[in-house]
């Protein structure tokens, strides 16, 4: 981003992106000990800011990280980050790390958490993703289970997902389906999964091993608005293979059609009708919904 000299928020101050550095002794760096959010800014409105901040608080509670900032303070810092950078459309990365400590695993040595906000220009996915749809493959790397590292926590430890992403890349695909320990579909490496069958929407329950996606939640609302029935239920690879339509949801991806799964063409191999309806409704919603910066 050569033409965009970004200011990064670090613990209450804005610094030039070249000087935006944290200590190598931060446990976020040493151990992935921390949490984050990825948030979108549309036309000067932050989409579902309160929902993102609530999920951040849930993640913090789950990892026993006490945040010394109120939700309102964090919200203001997020808005300020957008204003300082003159952004009206963008992607906001909010990071809370455990903080600087000693080399031991224990977070007890970390004095205070660090709050970092990067408000960047949005790097959109290629248009073909939306017009032609994605080809996705199931990989061998299983999604971590709730008894190990609960996938509902949006933690800085993304190695599980990165391994799946690498595996997909080696197989010639950009995105992967990850299964849970029981063999049910959990999610993709950075997106939730929906299928369409007999005119209804289906998505795995969060308990199958996925993030409580904010875009997923928005699709729940959209399904109501469109009068589409939505069922949360365990899905197998077979359910995906025989689905009429399939799409992925995420803050960066928004709603992306899937047209091939494990070599099987989905529907007629083109993005489906209901997928289009959901995507259009999503686009209509994000342009008006949200918190004014
Ligand atoms: N699953 C994972 C593993 C993710 O990292 C994300 C966020 N990119 C999602 C699902 C989608 O969540 P959201 O809609 O809140 O961005």
From TrEMBL:
GO molecular function, one term: branched-chain-amino-acid transaminase activity
Coiled-coil residue spans: none
Substrates-to-products reaction catalysed: L-valine + 2-oxoglutarate = 3-methyl-2-oxobutanoate + L-glutamate; L-leucine + 2-oxoglutarate = 4-methyl-2-oxopentanoate + L-glutamate; L-isoleucine + 2-oxoglutarate = (S)-3-methyl-2-oxopentanoate + L-glutamate
Sorted UniProt keywords: Amino-acid biosynthesis, Aminotransferase, Branched-chain amino acid biosynthesis, Pyridoxal phosphate, Transferase
GO cellular component: cytosol
Biological process, per Gene Ontology: isoleucine biosynthetic process; L-leucine biosynthetic process; L-valine biosynthetic process
Names of required cofactors: pyridoxal 5'-phosphate
Top EC class for this record: transferase
EC code(s) of this entry: 2.6.1.42
Top-level taxon of the source organism: Bacteria
Pathways involved: Amino-acid biosynthesis; L-isoleucine biosynthesis; L-isoleucine from 2-oxobutanoate: step 4/4; Amino-acid biosynthesis; L-leucine biosynthesis; L-leucine from 3-methyl-2-oxobutanoate: step 4/4; Amino-acid biosynthesis; L-valine biosynthesis; L-valine from pyruvate: step 4/4
InterPro entries named in the record: Aminotrans_IV (IPR001544), Aminotrans_IV_CS (IPR018300), Aminotransferase-like (IPR036038), B_amino_transI (IPR005785), BCAT-like_C (IPR043132), BCAT-like_N (IPR043131), Class-IV_PLP-Dep_Aminotrnsfr (IPR050571)
Protein's UniProt keywords contain Transferase: yes
Family, as annotated: Belongs to the class-IV pyridoxal-phosphate-dependent aminotransferase family.
Described function: Acts on leucine, isoleucine and valine.
Name listed for the protein in its UniProt record: Branched-chain-amino-acid aminotransferase
């Amino acid at each position: 981003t050569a033409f965009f000299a970004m200011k990064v928020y670090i613990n209450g101050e804005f610094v030039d992106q070249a000087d935006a550095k944290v200590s190598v002794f931060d446990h976020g760096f040493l151990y992935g000990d921390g949490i984050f959010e990825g948030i979108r800014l549309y036309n000067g409105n932050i989409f579902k800011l309160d929902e993102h901040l609530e999920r951040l608080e849930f993640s913090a509670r789950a990892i026993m990280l006490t945040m010394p900032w109120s939700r309102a303070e964090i919200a203001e810092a997020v808005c300020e980050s957008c204003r300082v950078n003159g952004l009206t459309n963008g992607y906001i990365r909010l990071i809370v790390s455990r903080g600087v400590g000693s080399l031991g695993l224990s977070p007890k040595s970390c004095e205070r958490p660090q709050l970092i906000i990067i408000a960047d220009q949005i790097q959109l996915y290629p248009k073909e993703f939306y017009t032609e749809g994605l080809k996705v493959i199931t990989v061998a790397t299983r999604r971590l289970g709730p008894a190990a590292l609960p996938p509902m926590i949006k933690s800085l430890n993304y190695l599980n997902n990165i391994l799946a992403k690498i595996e997909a890349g080696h197989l010639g695909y950009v995105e992967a389906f990850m299964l849970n320990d029981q063999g049910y579909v959990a999610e993709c490496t950075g997106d939730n999964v929906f299928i369409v069958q007999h005119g209804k929407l289906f998505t795995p329950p969060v308990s199958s091993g996925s993030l409580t996606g904010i875009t997923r939640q928005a699709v729940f609302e959209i399904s109501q608005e469109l009068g589409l029935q939505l069922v949360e239920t365990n899905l197998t690879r077979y359910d995906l293979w025989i689905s009429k339509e399939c799409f992925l949801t995420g803050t960066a991806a928004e709603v992306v059609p899937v047209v091939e799964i494990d070599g099987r063409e989905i529907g007629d191999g083109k993005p489906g009708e209901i997928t289009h309806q959901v995507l259009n409704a999503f686009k209509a919603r994000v342009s008006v919904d949200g918190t004014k910066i």
